[in-house]
Amino acid sequence: MKRIIIITVMCLMAVIGVKAQENVTYEAWEGTLNKGKTPVQVFIERRDDGLLSGWIRYPNAKKPEYILLVGNAGEEEEVGKYVSLYEYQKNGHINGNMFLKIEGTKYSGTWQHLETEYDMVLTGNIDYPEDLKGQLRPATRKEIGKKYNFSYDHITGDERGGTAEFSIKGAEKLAYNIAVYAPNIAEGEGVGALFNNIMTGVEEEANYEFHAEFFPRFCIITDIVGPEMGFYGAWTSFAHVYIKR
Q1: pLDDT tens digits, residue range 23-69?
Q2: Which residues pair with 54 in a beta bridge?
Q3: Which own/partner pairs from 1-8 qualify as long-range (CB within 8 Å, at least 24 positions apart)?
Q4: Which pick of 20, 139, 162, 207 has the fewest CB atoms within 10 Å?
C-alpha cells in the first residue's frame, strides 16, 4: 500500500499544468465497504488530464454527509486502469485513501486508514446531484482563500501536514507563506505571479519553482523544478493538496 500511495502522489502532482483543463465528466456510484457491511456512495468529477475530485457519502452514518475527495486516475502495467482518492475532512485532515481498479463496469479495491483496510466495491450507477458539481472549476480571484492546510496520519500514524497562506498583491501577484512537515520541513515565503487561477512561485535559495492551482474548495501545489537535492530533505517540498479553511 505504501508503494501505491507514493505512485498516487507522484501521478497527482504530474497532472497539473500551466493551462487548466476544461473538459470535465461526472460519474456517481453506489457500493459497499467491508465485505458488503457498509453502504457507500462515491461521486467522481474527472478532468481530462486525470485530476479527480468529488465526494464520498456513508448513507447509514448517524449524520450522513458529503465528504470531499481529491485524487487522480491513471494506468499502471501491474494494476491496469485505476482511480486513487484521498478523503478530506473539513479541517483538512486526510481520513483515508481509496485505491480502486477499473474492472469492466465496476470499481473494486481497498479503503485504508493506518492498519485498517477494507475491501470496496462500486457497482451501481446513481444520479450526481447538480449542487455537488463544480469542484474542479477554476477559482475566481475572490474565491482564492487566505488560509489552506492539510494533515494526515494514515500512512505511519505520525501526524504530518502543512499550511499555506495567500494574499492578493495587485492585479497579477499573490503573496504566499508556506510551511510543510511531511516528513521533513519545507518553508518559504514570497510573491508569485498570478495568471487566472494559477500562481507560479520561486524559492531561489532552494532553486525551486512551483505552481499553486486554485479551485473553489482547495488548491494543489505542484513542483515545476524540484528543490535542489537535499535542501528540504528527501520526499519534501510544497507539493500537496491543501484544503481551504
Answers
A1: 999 999 999 999 999 999 999 999 999 999 999 999 999 999 999 99
A2: 44, 69
A3: 1/99, 1/110, 1/112, 1/117, 2/155, 4/84, 4/99, 5/97, 5/155, 7/74, 7/76, 7/84, 8/71, 8/72, 8/84, 8/86, 8/97, 8/99
A4: 207
